[in-house]
Amino acid sequence: MKIKIFLLIAGLSLWLAGCSQATPAPLEPTLTKVVAETPIAESPTNTPESEVEAPVSEITQLAQLPLVDDFETGELLSGQAGSAPVGFITWSDGSAVSIQTVTVEPGDALALPDQAATNIILQLNTDISPGGWSGFSHAFASPALDAWVPQDWSPYEGISMWLYGNNTGGALFIDILDNRSATSSMDDAERWTHQIPDDFTGWQQIQIPFTEFTRKDIGNSAPNDGFTLTEVHGYALGAFGSANMGAQANYLDQVMLYGEAGERPVEISLAETTFQAKESGLATIKLKLNKPAAEIVSVQYLTIEGNATSGVDYTLPGDKVIFEPGQMTQSFKIPIVDDTLAEGNEQTLVVLYNPTGAVLNPQSRAILTIRDNEAPDPDFITDFNQFPPFFASEGVDLSLLTVAPEGELALPDQIDPENILAVNYPADQLSANFGHFYPQGQDWSQKAGLSFWYYGANTGEPVNLELLGAPAATSGEAAPGDWSLTWSDEFDDPAGTSPNPAIWQPEIGDGMLNGIPGWGNGELEYYTAQPENAATDGAGNLVITAQKIDPAASNLMCWYGPCEYTSARLITRDRAEFEFGRVEARM
Question: What would the pLDDT profile of 292-305 be if each residue is shown by its tens digit?
Fold first, then answer.
């Protein structure tokens, strides 16, 4: 599968993303299992017989299932646990939303099938336009409403409830708030969701096996360790405007657990989602199994992504970890290089793959942060640790070279590997220049001068250094015809050329290093810097291509498991920056 997006830039580029995120079409939602398949009309005279023969008040006792909520107290209390609200909480995109309880007598329009006594149900009021969303959560809380109190749902097969639909054509959904970080004071509960098409009117009893829930990332730094159900912190009911749902009321009752869960396989995971070590130290990477295994369990590991480089910033001790039968925990240590460079903190991802004797738990990746022990020099302009945002005249090619201390291009007294800027241009070209425009003027008036290392070729030709003053200020409005073209990228390189790294910075991975796995909206692509995903086409266009890959033939891991797609995501942050101007692009 190929998805192409063409970009032609003319004019200014101000923090302009280089691609529209080419997310493949989502899979069709799994249909919800409906016990009472005949819609229940609002009029009690049209009520068909329900498959549940006992009165509502007896459902729990007959089925011998744990009741989560039946709202019979008539109270929807809320409180605060740290920075997170607990109890019954509403949320929305800014549209009106509220919840309340309603007392229903037998024979009323809102009576449940075969209701024989007074019943209390929850009413959710929303007003949802296309693309809108709102709903409520029940975050399980202590009696004092000042702490989370999780529940263990792992012995059960699924969740059931009575739900009242309005046949709006939109989508209802149930979220389960799974485990949170152990020391967190915020709502970082992991969300697992299931969509229920609002294509029915009146009451239906819904049963959803836990196996039909999928992970949903809402950008709250939730753990990603699988749907364990051992520490469920709550549930939510919401609606999403895949159609104009308008002002409506949905009703909910008898939220229950049902069935018996099957035996879970042996799972292997990283013990934490983040590890840290300082330069000259050791990073201890801990692994664990969810239960003892009768046979040997092994798993391979590697590091990918980030600005920390194996062999330069750290040394991997191997590539495999082995658990002996019955062993539940294991670890390996990564020595961190103590260099002399002020690089700031650096990161990489530790990834588990290719397990034997177990299956991978979703928590198979962790961020390793290396804490720098050198103070940054405030007078440093650039040390070329990353590609500089330099402009270059026509014919000039800029690139970065990593030079070892013993290399021919090593600086005097160099101790560690250093990046240097290489400037190449045709031998018959009379002049070449490159440099950097600051979006805002820099005050260098208190400095004595500018210094840099330069590798000469003894040509006898002068090398000129020019400091550019601030341009003259323009007041008032200027007609578009009076504007000056400051920069453009016409993408007129030969086909297959990667975009200019001085302008277009590729973001790598699935967003985990940025703290937003799935880039905050459940994207399926793993973004790369490869020309197969982002390159010019030889006709003046930059082409972004999303490609379907074979997960079994790749060790790329995404938030949902082995990656299924690759693509590219380009940004101009710290590259092309302008304080004023106008952006024009043809897409």
Answer: 999 999 999 999 99
